[in-house]
Amino acid sequence: MGRKDSSTTKLPVDQYRKQIGKQDYKKTKPILRATKLKAEAKKTAIGIKEVALVLAALLALLLAFYAFFYLRLSTNIDSYLDPNED
Description:
mainly alpha
């Protein structure tokens, strides 16, 4: 008798999975396809963090480029000026 009772009793997890499967089966194919596409789009979309990191890197590169040429040109101009002229 113990074996018969244990085979008919299902785990709550299995019952839950079966219930979810029935709910998904009730949906039509276009709805399921749209749900899958939406999940894929969300998974592959770039986030705000990635965009912010790229912008910060570009800004740092631009700042370094500007600083390099500013220092390079300012030392050249100072070397051409003669402090005893005026």
